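Sample pair:
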Amino acid sequence: MKNGGAVLAAVKYTAIAAAAAILCIALGRAAFTIGQRRSTDASADGGVLVVIDAGHGGEDGGTSGGGLVEKDLNLEVAMIMRDILSSAGVRCAMTRTDDRLLYDAYGDLSDYTGRKKVYDLRNRLRIAEEHENAVFVSIHMNYFASAKYSGLQVWYSPNDPDSKRLADLLQSTVKKYVQPDNDRETKRAGGGIYLLDRLHTPAILVECGFLSNENERTLLSDAEYKKRLALVMSEAIMEFLCAERTGGE
């Protein structure tokens, strides 16, 4: 870490991590009970399940900058989140755990030429829909032509009112513990975000940072920062699971 602010943030991390870990464990123990109340059609195998989607993979690297490739960062953060949530007692499923696209995950076609991206997205959707009481969290990185932009931002599905609640909670929790200068607001997804447009369960997409911004790239290349970010996002998910369904906006 190159500047004083980053060093100070690293010092604060120890206390934050300890407090958040305790909270995650406590919330995790309650999550099943409250998660089962989240929906009247909870899956038979017991309560809520968090589907963590590491965006891109394989031939599709996503965006890149400064030697960092989005697909790799997405998977790193997603797997840290899985480990944290699982350790706290929350059931999790990953759409991918290695460097690949998912177009052939169900063996629908013998030749996917020209259709890999379409079937990759379809299969991520299918994985989420296989779990009746799922919460879907897709991990991505951002990029913009102007290098001045930075900060995590969360998109939410318009099809379930709890999607916005989860998005707002995650955005505000990251601002509180990781990015105090982040004034971004959550955004409602349109048809351009395939998964959020089609899922009818709480679903969000997290743009964890801008690879077009040098300072943010430096942070996202740091292992401790990625752990801190994953920990805080996991804490927000825990809080969401422990809240009653709103029943509306």
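The longest strand covers residues 134-142.
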